[in-house]
Every structure is written in structure tokens, then in C-alpha cells.
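2024-03-11 09:14:02 INFO queue: dequeued item Fatty-acyl-CoA synthase, len=542
2024-03-11 09:14:02 INFO validating residues
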Amino acid sequence: MFSTMQDGSLTIARILEQGSGPHGASAQVITWTGEGSRRRTYADVGRRAAQLAHALRGLGVTGDQRVGTFMWNNAEHLEVYLAVPAMGAVLHTLNIRLFPEQLVYVANHAEDEVVVVDTTLLPLFGKLLPELKTVRHVVVAGGGAAGLEAPQGVQVHDYEELLSGQPVEFDWPELDERSAAAMCYTSGTTANPKGVVYSHRSIYLHSMQVCMTDGMALSQADRALAIVPMFHAMSWGLPYAAFMVGASIVMPDRFLQPEPLAKMTAVERPTMAAAVPTIWQGVLQYLSANPHDVSSLSEVVVGGAACPLSLMKTFEEEYGITVLHAWGMTETSPLGSVSRAPAGTTGEEVWRYRASQGRLPAGVQARLIGDDDQVLPWDGESVGELEVRGPWIAASYYGDDDPEKFHDGWLRTGDVGHISPDGFLQLTDRAKDVIKSGGEWISSVDLENKVMGHPAVAEAMVIGVPDEKWSERPLVAVVLRDGQQVDAAELRDFLADSVAKWQLPEYWTFIDEAPKTSVGKFDKKRLRKQHADGGLDVTRLD
Ligand code: AMP
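2024-03-11 09:14:37 INFO prediction written
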């Protein structure tokens, strides 16, 4: 028997109408300009999205053509985010920090026909353009289109000129909610990047999850500072979720360093913000020497890599800001789990829950797979690879068979950990980063977090290095805070209180800067290479 209910499609057009209609006058997108901000109401964003859709139709975007963006987080990027899927085309966010060969690969693989580019990124984009085989139109936002030399067959347009004079309403088509809305390539460090194609339905459901009270709890009362780039995992869903519920959004544009982030927080007073741990480490370090009023923030979301407990405690104890630890991947839209301690927990137990990756919501099922492919119990101890499935989890990659990544309808995350009977996920490592010492596993993430708990340490990375006796042992690479001094022996003594004796690292190195990936996470592959090439000055403790 079927239900008697209607089947209204879950599409981006509904999100666009809700944000620009009921919330049109009250909600704003605020873009940081370096000194101050420029503001646009959601009503204006809606009108300009309609103008953009008309203009793109004029450029031949009449179906599911891919429209790329090569942009920072700003108001224009939000307009493209809304207009392109709502008109039935497919948004492709290009990660400006990928290597040029990877960028060329993804733009050609996705067959981008139009690319919208920020003027400040033209020097970078201009070098790629001759290699982009399918691009016919480049639209430059922020002025300066005349500066771009276009290869034959490519037309260059100015964003504002293109919009000017276009109708401010658009008859958004009724689309199949399962059709493609947006795509994002994973920042693979070894093989070619893989394309994840989100549907209207997956984005809609994911946005609702972002807004749920036990999700990121985004509401019309919020002003969200979206530090996570819109070219990385859809800025963790914040742009669509904010538009859906009428939360205002603060966009940092290209000003992603600790100083402007502190300043825009003091001036624009966001209530919540989201970024990877390395960004927050930098902000906290800056704030300790340069106090700013960050009291408007009640919650910050930390994810993309494990959040060290020390980072959480500093936020909470020194600034009264609650840290929400979240786990996800490009393939999971990205919001998977969020960590809020169960009601009634107190004392240290609260920290234990909150430092974990948290609970998965009803929309995401999880299982742990052990060495022999058996499904492991949720007993808080059995460690296996996490597999997930659900309506906003990828089922395959775009035009690229990768059977390794998908397993009987489940996504293999490559993350390793355990789940407690009450559903809290605790990741211990990436499958490829776990260290096997004398047949026993050592969690590199656990060691990193503990070393980063030392007051002299800004950042710590741990990799496995070959060892004659144990086959592999941990090597800790430490970045000290400005003006701080500490040696390897002292750091190892510091760990001795909380780390089993056989796990205590004997290999240590001090580095000026931690190598990072295109999205700001520790790049262990580069550190391993530096070590293999003899580029690290390693101390061996007895
Ligand atoms: P990406 O697709 O670039 O966002 O990377 C996803 C990967 O980041 C995951 O598979 C995890 O390895 C890692 N990750 C994301 N969030 C967390 C977290 N809270 N704790 C530990 N690792 C995380």
C-alpha cells in the first residue's frame, strides 16, 4: 500500500525561495573586504541568483552543463551556489589549492563549460585556462575581466555586466530531486581526485541535518562564520543550511589568516563558526597574544581532522566557547557524526564523550569491519574500519570505478575506530596512518593530541617510521609555539602519564612548519617523504 502523501521534490529551488522570501529582509550575507564588510540581504541574493540564471541561459546553459567556480567564500559564490543547481545545471566547486595538474584534470573530467572566477584568483586561473578543454565562458567576479587573456574559443565576461539588466525573477524548473545539483572532487593525494555528485535531495536532507538541534543547530537566530572553504566539501553544508533557515552568514573571502579572522569575529559578531583544527590552533595562538572580543561566538564546529582535547579546553575555559567536534568526508556531504555529550553526564565523562567523533544521526547507518571482513560489535572496544550508508552518502564516484571504496552498498571511509553501545564513534586513525609496532597498533592521532596538550607545542604530527626491532615505531614532528623551548626528553616525560610505556615514542624531530594538504589538514604523506629523503633532523631517545 502506498501512502496518501504528496511527493514535493526536495530541491535547491525550495531552499532559495525560503531564504530569499520569508528571510529575505532579515538575513544577510556579509563578505569581509580586508578592512570592513560588504552586505547583501538574502532577498538581494535571490534576485541576483535569478539574474545570473537568465545570464547563464544566454551563455547556453540550458541543461545539466557543469558550471565551475574558482572562488573564495563570498556573496557572489553564494549566488552561484544557489542559481546553478536551481536552474537545473550542475555546480562544480574547484578547489583552488589543488596542484595545477589536478585542477586541470578535474575541470576536464567534469567537463566544465562555464567557470566563475574571483578576480583575485585570475593569475592562478589564467595559467590553467589554456589546458581546460571544455570551458567556453569565463565569468570574472569582482572586476578586472579585461586582464584575462583568453584562448581562442573562450569568451570572458564581467559578472556584474552579465547580471545587469536581467530580470530579477526566474521560473525555477521542477526538477527530479535525484538529479545532480553539485559536484566536488576529493583532494586525493595519490591517485587522481574522485568526483562526488550530490543530488538535490541529498543536499536538502543534509541541510536539515545541519540545522537539527543535535546537529550543528543552525537557526534563523544565528550568524554563521563559514571559514571552511566553499570549495572544500561544500563548506560543510553551511551555505545551503543557512539559506534554508534564514541564518545570516559571514564570508571571510581570501582573509583566512588568524589576524583577520579574529578581527572579523570582533566586528561582525558571528554566533557560530566552522573550521579544521589547524585554523583554530592558529586563531587561538594569535588571540593569546592579541586579545579580541570573540564573545559573540557560542559554538564553534571543529572537524575535518581529529580535534585535540587541549584545543577544546582552551576554547571553553579561556573564552567560554563550546566546541562541537564533528566528523565527515566529502563523500558524506560532509556531515556524519557530531559530538554532544548525552544528557545527565558530568565531570570528566563529558570530555570523554565530547572529544570523540560523536553520534551518527538517523540518516547515517554505520558498521565496523574487522580484519577478516567480519562485522564487529559496538562495544566501545572492537576496532575496525568504519563503513557508512544513507541518503546523503556517496554510492559511487563520477565516471570512475573505484570498487575499493564501496562495499555491498556501504562507503568504506578508510577511517579506523570503535563505537560504544550508546553510539559514540571514536576514531583512532586513518587506515593508512596506523602504526604497527611489534604486532600491536599505536594510534598516531592519539599521540598527536596528547603532545599538543603540552603548553609549548603548537602542532604535532606522528607518522610510523621503519624500526629494525619493532618493524615500525612512531616519529613525532613538533612545531613549537613562538618563543617556547622544550626538548624531546621533556615531551616524552610529559606523555608518560597518559600513554602506555611501549607506545612512548623514541623518535622526535622539531620542524618550523607542519606540511598541510590543500584543505589545511596535516599532510602525513609529505612528512613521510621528507623523512625518507633524509630531510628531517631526528633525535632518538634511549
Ligand atoms: P575530506 O573528504 O577531505 O573532508 O576528508 C575526510 C577525512 O577527514 C575523513 O575520512 C577523516 O579521515 C578525516 N576527518 C574528518 N573529520 C574528522 C574528525 N572529526 N576526526 C578525525 N578525522 C576526521
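2024-03-11 09:14:37 INFO annotate: Residues 186-187, 233, 303-306, 325-330, 334, 357, 413-415, 427, 430, 519 surround adenosine monophosphate (CB under 6 Å).
2024-03-11 09:14:38 INFO item closed
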